[in-house]
Amino acid sequence: GAVVSQHPSRVICKSGTSVKIECRSLDFQATTMFWYRQFPKQSLMLMATSNEGSKATYEQGVEKDKFLINHASLTLSTLTVTSAHPEDSSFYICSALLGQSPSYEQYFGPGTRLTVT
Amino acid sequence: GDSVTQMEGPVTLSEEAFLTINCTYTATGYPSLFWYVQYPGEGLQLLLKATKADDKGSNKGFEATYRKETTSFHLEKGSVQVSDSAVYFCALSDYKLSFGAGTTVTVRA
Question: What is the pLDDT of residues A7-47, one digit of tens each?
Fold first, then answer.
């Protein structure tokens, strides 16, 4: 099956520093990847759509200068949380899109737990 | 816009009990429908899917049928195990995924 990895799985950083999270599709190429944020006991909130070779598309209310997304290759997208603050602490999950309309499927990474102290 | 309404939890069951999680959707087109499962501290795993009306998705004893007339995609399993304890998300997609709120299921031995 399609496998998506994320690195790191957990990260603790100090307020004001930046953190980069990597999302890789291991056995398929993904033109499109998605980044989600999940708060405890809540559903996933889509942050942005990452397209290889072009700028990411951010959902309303998501600060693009704070959450920098780079999709430099067909197997790698990165999310950088810049100048992190405690309120950015969350579980970040990526997914990679596979298939064609109407049979799209998203395969999810295992998530990254970010704690900002 | 497209949206998913999912049965609120939490749901607590005994082993071998029957599980149903209700899911209804609102969509302008003909989206694909999915059930995802999330185990503690992990990402989401695709449990099953259906791409058109009357399709039945099934996997690991779970089933769900795409009902266009009732705009529903209820998840069922006839005999749950402790290992089925997780959070279950109903979702629809015409490219982006719209998720339901999630239902926490706990199965007791």
Answer: 999 999 999 999 999 999 999 999 999 999 998 888 899 99
Does residue A81 have a pLDDT over 90? yes
Q: Return the pLDDT at B8.
A: 83
| Cis ω for the linkage preceding B40 (within 30 of 0) | no
Minimum-distance CB partner of A108 among B44, B101, B102: B44
Rounded to whole angstroms, the Cα distance separating B97 from B1 reads 12
> Whole-angstrom Cα distance, residue B67 to residue B53?
6
Q: How many CB atoms lie within 10 A of CB B58?
A: 14
Residue with tokens 């690195």: A7
Distances (CA, A) of B94 to A102, B19, B52: 7, 28, 12
Write the residue in B31, B43, B96 that is nearest to A46 by C-beta: B96
Q: Are A110 and A16 in contact (CB under 8 A)?
A: no
Q: Which residues of B touch A105 (CB under 8 A)?
A: 34, 46, 49
Q: What six digits make up the tokens of B32? A: 């694909």
Cβ distance A42 to A113 under 8 Å? Answer: no
Report whether pLDDT(A100) > 80.
Answer: no
